[in-house]
Structure formats: C-alpha cells, structure tokens
Amino acid sequence: MNVGMRVRGGLLAALVMFAMPVAAMLAAGLASSSALAQTLDSIQVEGNRRVEVATIRSYFKAGPGGRLDQGHIDDGLKALIETGLFQDVRINQAGGRLVVTVVENPVIGRVAFEGNKKVKDEQLTSEIQSKPRGTLSRPVVQSDAQRIAEIYRHAGRYDVTVVPEIIEQPNNRVDLVFTITEGVKTGINSIEFVGNTTYSSYRLKDVIKTRESNLLSFLGGSDVYDPDRIEADRDLIRRYYLKHGFADVQVIAALTEYDPQRKGFLVTFKIEEGQQYRVASVNFQSSIGALDGNALSRFSRVSVGSLYNAEALEKSVEEMQIEASRRGFAFAVVRPRGDRNFEAHTVSIVYAIDEGPRTYIERINVRGNTRTRDYVIRREFDLAEGDAYNRALVDRAERRLKNLDFFKSVKITTEPGSASDRIVLNVELEEKSTGDFSVSGGYSTTDGPLAEVSISERNLLGRGLYGKASVTYGQYARGLSLSFVEPYLLDYRVALGLDTYYREQLPNSFISYGTKTIGFSPRIGLTLREDLSLQLRYSIYEQEISLPSYLANCNNNPSNGLLAFNPSPAWVAVNGAPAATALGAVDLTGMGLWCYADGEASLPVRKELANGRTLTSAVGYSLDYNTLDNNKNPTDGLLVDFRQDFAGVGGDVTYLKSAMDAKYYAPLVADIVGLIHLQGGILTPVGSNGIRMLDQFQMGPNLVRGFAPNGIGPRDINPYGTQDALGGTKYWGSSLEMQMPFWFLPKEIGLKGAVYADAGGLYDYQGPTAWAATGEVNVPGCIPPTNNPKLAPAPGTCLGLQYDPQNLVRTSVGVGLIWQSPFGPLRFDYAIPITKGPHDVVQQFKFGGGTSF
Fold it and tell me: What domain range includes position 111?
C-alpha cells in the first residue's frame, strides 16, 4: 500500500512539472494573440505635450488587416527614438491596449557662446545643428561641440575645448550654452622634405601653400596647421615634379607631429623623385575614320626633346578634345599614353583618339549660390543642357569658376540621368566675400609718400561685374579714378572696361613743372589662349602743364634784345635781327618771346605752357604673352608685352607710339633665378604737327638703374634755366639679373638678393631747341655769357643749349634687396653708373613699395 501511494505521488509530481511550462506557453500565446489583435486605433499615448497623438501613432506601420504584430511594434519604437523628439519612449500592454509612454525633449530657448573671441557668433551659429525653438537632442549637442572644435582646429587652435551646458527653464524649455576655451594658435614650427635630391627644400617651400611660423605670421594665416591644406600641398609637390619631367614621382606621405614643447607641428613630406624623362616621340592615333589624328597635332604643347610635362600634356588633351568637338566629333575622347624607356629615360607620347560613349547632359544643377546669379555661373560652361557630355569642357568650366574668385570652393560632380545615355551635372559652390575696402600706403624715392583709399567689388550685384573707386593723395602725385568691367559683353567672352581718371603730378626735384590730366578710356579684352591675350582700347584725355610763378615771370619784347626762338628746326634771333642761316630769316612778329632773366623754365616747357590745354585722342592695342609660373614671384617663364597707340583720331596731337617689354625668367643653380629683361620703343610723328615734349619717352631707373627719374637723355642745359629733361623718341634697354635667396635666413621671411647689370639709351629728341649764337647755328661748345643775362648776348655766345648725345650708351651695375613682405612687395636698389652723359642726373639709391591694410 505504501508502495502504491508513492507511485501515485510521483505521477502527480510529474504532471505538475509538465503542466507549468505548458501554462507558460499558453500565456505567451494569449499575449501574442492579444498583440496581434492591436490596431493603430487601439494605441494609447501618454506623456506627450507638444507632439500630437496622431503624429506618434503614424510611426507605427500596420500590416495586413490593419493589425500590428511584434515586429511592427519594434519598428515603431525605433522610429520614435530616431526622431530626436523624445528623451525616453516605453511601450507596455495594459487592458488589451498598447500604451506608448513618451518623455519629450525640451525646446531650446536660446543658443549662446561664451569665450569665443577669434570666431564670431554668427559663424558658429551657421555651423551647428542646434537652433533656437528647435528640439534639444543630446547627441546633436555633442556633435555640435565637435564641429565647433573642428572650426577652431582649421584656424590653427588645436588645444581648444568646447563644453556644452544645458540650463533648465520653466515649461520644459532649456538654454544651450557652449563654453569655449580657445587656447593658443597652433602653428607650423618646421617643414622638412625627405628624398628630394633635384630640388632643394628651399625651392619646394615656394611650391606649397603652408608656411613656417615667424615673427610676422600674425599678418597672415598660411602658417596655421590645416590638414586639408597639407593634403593639397602633397598634390602641389607631385604636380611640380610632373611638370619638370619626373613621371615616376610619388609623394608618399605628409607626416605631421605635434611638439608639446614648442607648441607647434612638425611637417615632413616624403618624396620619391624617380628619374627625369624627356620626350622621345609624339604620335597621333585615331580610331575615328573621318578624323585624322595628325590634324590635331598643332594643339600639342609637348615637343620632341623637351622635358616631359604632365601639365602641358593635360592642356594639350583638353584643347584637342575641344577642337575635335568643333569639327563635329562631339563624342571624341583623347587619351594620352606614355611609353617609358627606363634605360634611356625617355617617354614616347601617343595621343589615342577614340569614339567615346554617346552621353548627353540632361540637366545642370547649380547649388550653393545665394548671391551670385545663376547665369553668371552657367556662362562659364562651353556646353549646355542637351549637349554632348565632354569631360574636357567640364574641367575647363570648373577651372574658370575657381578663377572667378567668387567662391571658397567649387566642385562639379556627375550622377546618372533619367536614361542610360543621360547624365546630370551638379555644381556645388560655397560663396565668399567679394568686396574689398583698402587703405594703401607706400613710399618711393620718386613720388615720396603716397596713400590710396579704394573700394572695389568683384561680383557687383551678384552679376559678375567689377567696379572700383579710388582716391590717391601723395606728396607729388594726386588723383582719383573710377573703373568698371563687364566680363561678358553681349553674352560673349569679351571683357568691356571703362576707366575715368584725374591725375595731378606736382613739381618736384626731378621736374620743374606740374601736369593735370583728366581722361576717359574704354577698352575691350579678349583671351586668345590661356597664355595669350589681346586688349583694344581708346583713350581721350586733356592735359595741361603748369609752372610755379617764379619760373614763368618773364615778359619781354624784341626791343629788349632778349632771346626769341623758332620752334621749327631751331635757330635764334638776337636784338630783333634774324640770324643768317641756310634756313632763311624768320619774322619775329607775333612769336612767343622767352627769357632767362632770373632762372626761367626750359624753352620746350614754356612752349607747352603757351599751348595751354591739349586734347589727345588715341586708339591702341596690347598683345600679352605670359607663361610665368607665378605672376607675383616668378622663377620660370616668359612675359612679353607689345603695345601700340595711334594719336590723331581727332584731338590736337598726332603720333604713333610703339613699345615692347619682355622678361624671361629661368632657374639656374642652387635656387638662383636668372632674369633677362629687354625693352624698347619708338615714337613716330604723323603729319606736320610735330611731337610735344610731354608725349616723348622719359627715362631713368625704369631703363637703367643708378639714374634719377628723367635723368637720362636729351636735356636743356642752359645754366640760367631749370635744366629740364626733354625726353626722346627712341629708347632701348637690356638687363641681366640674378636673384638669389639668403640661405641663412628662414624661407618665410621672404628676402632675396639681386645683382644686375643694365644698359640702355634714350635718343632723338624732336621739338624746340634753344641756340643763341649770332649769325651761326648749332655752335658746338659755346660758352654761356658771364655778363648780366638780361643784356643782349655778345656774338659767338649762347643763352640756351639742348644737349642730345646721339650714340651714348648708359650702363650701370648694382645690387638689390627684394622683400616679399606682409606689407607688400618692397625693393631696395643701389646702383653705380659706369658710363653716363655729362649732364645726366645720377641717383644711386632707389626704394619703392607699398601695401593694403
């Protein structure tokens, strides 16, 4: 019996143990069944204040039959959390209903910044996502703090700290305050190059944009550590080597290390130069039957025997592809191929011309231009919506947009269009300030101290127009000017410029007279190629000469027995009696009378004064060829400027003036740059009016250094006058110069030295001259009178003499100091004349320079 009871007890225990999990499963099934029974209308929302119930329910997406299963509930929970509207979200089952309990994020009342001195509130506000009247999200706040720190790091402050603080306010509102400790500026203490054997570190520092910190770094920002700039510097180094024949170059890394002791960064560029290659051959292969590849050969900038130049190769491909498109092959693609001979160090260039995919531009989207008009951007494209897609033209448009200098960044990307043969161009822009207000100051040994106040706008009214107004005031020079440029005249890539100006030059130690000029000049500029430009211009201006009263106080008549002159081939009459010359006698009646009673101005100057205001109307052109590697601080390339002006389109004067100026820079050895400078000009009279003294070339240190302004060439040497320079109608000049760095000084100081030799001459003055020898003409070596100059001269003596040595070459040698300073380019020269005329004016020291601030 006892055994039987034990058996029954064991069975009961087993049944109980089995029943418990079964009951749990049934309960779970009932719960699941209850959940399956939920619908959107059965969701109960609790805790919400601002967010509507319907809005919360909308995040739960019901399945078939409008019912919610557990997966739908989980998805709704995640969606609510991701909105950022809630601090907490909980879901419970209660009484057969789904209860969603939320705790809303507070609303931001204000966003403030404390401790920021280097970055303005407006800039920080535009960069962060947290906004007043928006919902507070703690992850977003942390992201904003990181973004603020990133802005400071790009400005060179790497030890910046940003602490966000949330201040509770009534009605579930908060104030968000970012407390910023800006720290000190983190600069670049040193820049090193490893692996460079062909080019020195000194030369490569010119290539990159980053600079080492120095005493004057506070005036600029290029010494600030910026990882984006350093990455761009890597590409600049690589492109520099590729331009000079190093086809295998690699800039392996740009290593940066922070030095806590010096509180700055150490930057090291690792370079593998490889070998330098020359071009062995240039060939053209076209797979397009109707297009002969050799027909594009004239657009190749790469020639046999020259150094391999990747930049020239890129430009060649671009111009060939554009030319092929002009010839009707819109889808032609030019791909260059370089076959290297590693033993001979040569590259064989092959331009392969193939038919590319037939892709059309469906749409061009322009984004980010808040001020610049859309058409200003679109007109930089040589293609439009519906045209065949041409990558070369797109690259050219991107380069043009960058050159406008309206934008911080320009990026053109592509995306697939609505069909397989359609493509969409996206132009992403970030605008920047294009207006400038500047106060410029300078000093030169010619013009003395000089100041200029100007205001300019490169993107006037967002239409791409340029305008500038400036006022100049100095010791010897004053004036004002207004300039306007329309870069696209009648929607063509032709620039129309208009200039109005007033200039006043005062008498100084180099000239006895002053001039006032008021004029207007329209001009048209055309870019023929990237390195060749043409400018057509018209100038009309009125000029008037003036003299101080003590130089213009002579009032005489023939009975005084003083000097009268004939402004034709010069000869002189004395005491009212014509001199006996082969040119015949001249009647003095009605002629201008001049004297040197107490030191009058030179006769040609007095003649200009008698003429009064003179109107000049001239047409001209300039042709410029520029291949310089750097317009501000060139080390390689050629710059040629040829100009001609014809005066006589109306007005009072007629002449043809031609001038040429050429500069050739070439790197020599050890960072020394050689410069050859050639210049020349000729002024040709047209008609019978002759040439005014004011229109003739005036030369000095601009031709041969070591001489004063207007210190070279024909001169009135009458000892009783002001001995003014008269100018000339022909000049030439040549200069050899070597510019070298001071290797013992930091590169960032920007100092260079120069040694040079100059030679040149100014000849052939054409205008009134003054000889005063009774009965004779052009008496060499006549002696000025020693008696009272108011009395009539004795026979054989002279009152005036115009000295014009016809074949004298002026030469000089000198040294210079060139400073690319934060205050602008400055130059100091000390030159010693070697050969000079007996009446030339010497000025051995010359200084000039200025800046804007």
Answer: 107-181
Count of CB atoms situated within 10 Å of the CB of 304: 12
Q: Are 321 and 300 in contact (CB under 8 A)?
A: no
122 and 169, same domain (yes or no):
yes
SS3 504: strand
Residue whose C-alpha is closest to residue 457's, from 449, 465, 447: 465
Q: Which amino acid makes up residue 124?
A: L
The CA distances from residue 546 to 371, 504, 601, 615, 728, in Å, are 49, 10, 11, 16, 21
Domain boundary among 431, 446, 471: 431
In the block, residue with structure tokens 């030019």: 334
Tokens encoding 698: 């005036």
CA distances from 671 to 318, 452, 675, 753 (A): 32, 36, 13, 12
Cα distances (angstroms) measured from residue 30 to each of 33, 38, 64, 155, 510: 5, 13, 20, 64, 110
Dump pLDDT digits (tens) for 602-642.
777 877 877 788 999 999 999 999 988 878 788 889 999 99
Hey, what are 131's tokens? 């906004």
Pairing of strands 810-821, 495-505: unpaired
pLDDT surpassing 60 at residue 593: no
> Does residue 399 lie within any of the structural domains?
yes
SS3 (DSSP) at 730: strand
| Residue indicated by tokens 């100081």 | 749
Q: Which amino acid is at 812?
A: S
Strand partners, 271: 251
Are 351 and 251 members of one domain? Answer: no
By the 8 A CB rule, do 284 and 297 touch? Answer: yes
443 — alpha (psi -120 to 50), left (phi > 0) or beta?
A: beta
Last residue of a domain, one of 355, 378, 398: 355
Whether the per-residue pLDDT at 39 is higher than 70: the answer is: no
CB atoms within 10 A of CB 543: 21
**Residue 395 and residue 318 in contact, taking contact as beta carbons nearer than 8 Å:** yes
Question: What span, in angstroms and rounded, lies between the C-alpha atoms of 416 and 363?
Answer: 10
- Residue 743 falls inside a structural domain: yes
Nearest to 851 by CA among 827, 829, 822: 822
Taking residues 93-122, report their average pLDDT. 83
| Tokens coding 357 | 């995919």
**Higher local confidence (pLDDT), 22 or 318:** 318
- Give pLDDT tens digits for 374-398: 999 999 998 889 888 888 888 889 8
Give one DSSP letter per residue of 561-572, joined into a string.
T--EE-SSS--E
DSSP 749: G
Beta bridge partners of 451: 441, 473
pLDDT for 576 equals 36
Confirm whether pTM is higher than 0.70.
no
Let me know if residue 474 belongs to a domain.
no
Is residue 141 domain-shared with residue 9, that is, in the same domain?
A: no
Alpha-carbon distances, residue 679 vs 384, 643, 732, 755, 762 (angstroms) = 45, 12, 6, 19, 12
| Residues 6 or more apart whose Cβ sits within 8 Å of residue 196 | 204, 271, 273
Q: Mean pLDDT lowest for which of 394-398, 448-452, 456-460, 506-510?
A: 448-452
User: CA neighbours within 13 Å on the CB side: how many for 215?
Assistant: 5
The whole-angstrom separation of Cα 853 and Cα 849 is: 14
Instruction: Please calculate the CA angle 445-449-455 and round it to the nearest 5 degrees.
Output: 130
> In this structure, how many other beta carbons lie within 10 angstroms of the beta carbon of residue 715?
25
CATH code for the domain in which residue 53 is found: 3.10.20.310
CATH for 808: 2.40.160.50
How many angstroms separate the Cα of 504 from the Cα of each of 291, 421, 501, 522, 697? 60, 64, 10, 21, 19
* Segment 420-433 mean pLDDT: 90
